[in-house]
Design brief:
- The chain is mostly helical and about 280 residues long.
- It has one domain: MetI-like (MetI-like fold, Orthogonal Bundle), CATH 1.10.3720.
- The protein is built from eleven helices and no strands.
- The radius of gyration is 22 Å and the shape is elongated.
- The mean pLDDT is about 85.
């Protein structure tokens, strides 16, 4: 990332207060998730006498249908949701960048095969694939990350391929090829560093997409299995109590909403900084 990009990024934040608020919220949620063990309440501790208590001093977010402290579950649910979002983004970005750079740089039959594979995968219904993959994989954070990561890399691959097609015609890349440098070395030294702004934009948006997909999977019973909490699984469990205890849906729903909006504003700032003026 060059110095000009950094300066423009700082300027972009200065002129967009919503992006600053989004960044602050993301950092706050991440810090709260990391420091969740400091909250002296077991998120899985059941209390039959404290079922469905509304928000109060003892329980800031109330309690759920099993008497568990809802604030503690939101903290630990944030750890799960944010971890899944981040790891799924890393996986999808690695696959997308690898496929995109190889396809764009090598070209020919390799490019044709990889892009037709991308087109085929993008044409399939995502939710159907999630259901099928979930049927063959055990529930858990690792498999949810794998499912989401393997379903979100295609758009990154197409964007990176377009950037690579442009970059490989630059003089320094042409010289590297003529001088006999290996393809892998050229890609890592000259292509990847120059597509990083584009990758950062895509990765930022993919975090929000991964969190939404995890929430959707958990909402339909395909993701995180209780007693492990995630914001999506908490939202799913609250369906039965929408009229009697609406706060069970409000708190995880608002956390998901704020997180996704924050990442979108963050990605919007990076996109505007990077796009040609």
């Amino acid at each position: 990332m060059n110095e000009n990009f950094k300066k423009n990024l700082i300027l972009g934040f200065k002129t967009n207060r919503l992006a600053i608020a989004g960044l602050v919220l993301i950092l706050l949620f991440a810090l709260a998730a990391i420091l969740a063990p400091l909250y002296p309440v077991d998120p899985n501790a059941i209390s039959a006498t404290d079922r469905l208590l509304g928000p109060c001093m003892a329980h800031p977010f109330g309690t759920d249908d099993m008497g568990r402290d809802y604030f503690a579950r939101c903290l630990y649910g944030g750890r799960t949701s944010l971890l899944i979002g981040f790891l799924a983004m890393v996986l999808s970005t690695l696959i997308g960048v690898t496929v995109g750079t190889v396809s764009g740089f090598i070209g020919g039959i390799v490019d044709i095969v990889l892009m037709r594979l991308v087109d085929a995968l993008m044409s399939l219904p995502t939710f159907l694939i999630m259901v099928v993959m979930n049927a063959y994989l055990d529930a858990g954070v690792r498999n949810v990350v794998l499912i989401i990561g393997f379903l979100t890399w295609m758009s990154i691959a197409r964007i990176v391929r377009g950037e690579t097609l442009s970059l490989k015609e630059r003089e320094y890349v042409v010289y590297s090829r003529i001088s006999g440098q290996r393809r892998g070395k050229i890609i890592l030294r000259h292509i990847v560093p120059n597509i990083m702004p584009t990758v950062i934009v895509s990765a930022t948006i993919n975090v929000a997409q991964a969190i939404l997909m995890e929430s959707a999977m958990s909402f339909f019973g395909l993701g995180i299995i209780p007693p492990t909490s995630s914001w999506g699984s908490m939202l799913s469990s609250s369906q039965r109590y929408l009229t009697t205890a609406p706060y069970l849906a409000v708190f995880p729903g608002m956390l998901i909403l704020l997180t996704v909006i924050s990442f979108n504003y963050l990605g919007e700032v990076v996109r505007k900084v990077y796009e040609p003026k």
